[in-house]
């Protein structure tokens, strides 16, 4: 009898917490605009270097850039939590009636929306340069981007909780992992001709599967194995990130 109200309360409180976390981002769109600068430079300066047949370079390169947006926009999300720890606002939130899972879920789920907004802006911009994504694939691709963004953001928050107020340690670990994950995902260059050890590492990289899935989805290939593996990798990353974060939050609040 009490299970359903508890579930409703968890969902309701998580939605409220997500909305609370979104307010600063939506109130000050500078964060969203600034997050588009790097992808635009990559499209303008690196895109022409990708060797492909005329008219197909954007269809290969743009989906990878969108995944890069998801990676770069959420990998540093934990820095905001560090700021909350330093100024004491995090401790004040912990003593509120909200449950620990709600606090973490709200922060993690918030990452979905800025990524999708940025990805839509980039996609619309590239349409003027001849990019023509499949409409249904585009919709599924945005959902996939949001899911992987939740996962990366959750791991970033987890790292912030583990390193606590040592923000220098957070940035060392974050920067150490960021670029290998990007390179081994095939965002910028195909890994077909890479050494065997790089292909093995790429196969273990969730982002590589998401990138392959995005390229198939935008090309209108909605039922390929790449798409299935992409959603599996994104959901697994999100699930493990949230579980790791909840465990770290319990340890922090003891």
Automatic annotation (TrEMBL):
Assigned keywords, A-Z: Antibiotic resistance, Cell membrane, Membrane, Transmembrane, Transmembrane helix, Transport
One annotated GO molecular function: ABC-type transporter activity
Domain ABC transmembrane type-2: 26-252
Annotated InterPro entries: ABC2_TM, ABC2_TM_bact-type, ABC_2_transport, Nod_factor_ABC_transporter
A family per Pfam: ABC2_membrane
GO BP terms, alphabetized: response to antibiotic
A GO-annotated cellular component: ATP-binding cassette (ABC) transporter complex
Chief place where the protein resides: membrane
Subcellular location per the Swiss-Prot or TrEMBL entry: Cell membrane; Membrane
Family as reported in the entry's similarity comment: Belongs to the ABC-2 integral membrane protein family.
Protein name stated in the entry: Transport permease protein
């Amino acid at each position: 009898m009490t299970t359903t109200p508890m579930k409703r309360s968890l969902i309701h409180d998580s939605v409220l917490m997500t909305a609370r976390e979104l307010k600063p981002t939506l109130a000050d769109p500078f964060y969203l605009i600034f997050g588009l600068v790097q992808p635009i430079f990559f499209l303008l300066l690196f895109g022409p270097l990708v060797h492909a047949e005329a008219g197909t370079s954007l269809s290969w390169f743009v989906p990878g850039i969108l995944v890069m947006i998801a990676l770069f926009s959420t990998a540093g999300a934990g820095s905001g939590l560090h700021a909350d720890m330093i100024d004491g606002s995090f401790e004040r939130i912990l003593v509120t009636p909200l449950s620990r899972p709600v606090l973490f879920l709200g922060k993690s789920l918030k990452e979905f929306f800025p990524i999708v907004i940025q990805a839509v802006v980039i996609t619309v911009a590239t349409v003027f340069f001849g990019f023509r994504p499949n409409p249904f694939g585009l919709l599924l691709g945005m959902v996939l981007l949001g899911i992987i963004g939740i996962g990366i953001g959750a791991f970033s928050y987890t790292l912030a909780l583990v390193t606590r107020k040592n923000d220098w340690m957070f940035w060392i670990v974050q920067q150490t992992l960021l670029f290998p994950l990007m390179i081994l995902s095939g965002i910028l260059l195909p890994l077909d001709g890479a050494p065997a050890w790089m292909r093995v590492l790429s196969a273990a990289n969730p982002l590589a599967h998401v990138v392959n899935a995005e390229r198939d989805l935008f090309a209108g290939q909605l039922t390929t194995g790449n798409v299935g593996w992409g959603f599996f990798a994104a959901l697994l990353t999100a699930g493990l990130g949230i579980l790791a974060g909840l465990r770290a939050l319990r340890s922090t609040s003891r």
